[in-house]
Specification:
Strand content: 15-25%
Oligomer: single chain
Order of helices and strands: HHHHEEH
Strand order of the largest sheet: 1-2
Mean pLDDT: 81
Largest sheet: 2 strands, antiparallel
Shape: elongated
Structural class: alpha+beta
Low-confidence stretches: 1-23
């Protein structure tokens, strides 16, 4: 009976190892992604506006308003903080792939006094120092550490895209509101001008005697 049990264990061992190996072998499927959907510098250049597109209007007032919004907007500040958070998470995720070095030190001091045969005392001192360095490295057999770092890289890139989107939204909101104010001011000026023209037409003309 003991022999049968050993054989069953040995026969089950390759199956268990094969089951563990299935998750580590991954091949990314080929996807037919349109060229204008791919994240390439050429695609971004055609979709994303220029870095300072609003300067094309040549308005110092608009430039000042946008500069103030970019410097003090809390949404932009939060997006920048999320970038720093993602970068810190990336460094933490990549740390296990590096070897770890450690060292422990110890120091001891001892003083003793004994009586001498000729009278008096003899004092002795002893000092002991020790240093024990150590190094360790975790083997990434199944790719867990590598995949964790790749996920952290993707999160860091996504946080940068999110921050750029937030900044673009803030700038476009400021520019849109500024254009609306200019349009309303122009309408108000025209309405006042028309009202003044109508008032002047209704006034009676005095004839000279």
């Amino acid at each position: 009976m003991a022999v049968v049990r050993r054989r069953s264990v040995l026969l089950g061992l390759p199956a268990a190892l094969a089951g563990c190996a299935i998750g580590s072998v991954y091949r990314r499927p080929a996807l037919l992604i349109p060229a204008h959907w791919r994240d390439t510098p050429a695609a971004n250049a055609t979709i994303w506006p220029a870095a300072e597109w609003w300067r094309g209007f040549r308005s110092p007032q608009l430039d000042g308003l946008i500069a103030t919004a970019r410097a003090h907007n809390p949404d932009i500040a939060a997006a920048v903080a999320r970038i720093r958070q993602a970068d810190a998470a990336l460094r933490i995720a990549g740390a296990p792939l590096l070897p770890g070095v450690d060292a422990t030190g110890k120091a001891s001091w001892q003083r003793s006094t004994t009586a001498s045969l000729h009278g008096g005392h003899i004092t002795t001192e002893s000092r002991l120092y020790s240093l024990a360095p150590s190094a360790s490295y975790e083997l990434d057999l199944w790719g867990r550490l590598r995949d964790t770092r790749q996920a952290a890289i993707a999160s860091a890139l996504a946080s940068r895209y999110d921050a750029a989107t937030v900044a673009l939204g803030v700038v476009t909101s400021v520019a849109s509101i500024w254009f609306q104010v200019l349009a309303q001011a122009d309408r108000l000026a025209r309405a006042l001008a028309m009202a003044a023209c109508r008032v002047s037409r209704r006034r009676p003309h005095r004839s000279s005697s």
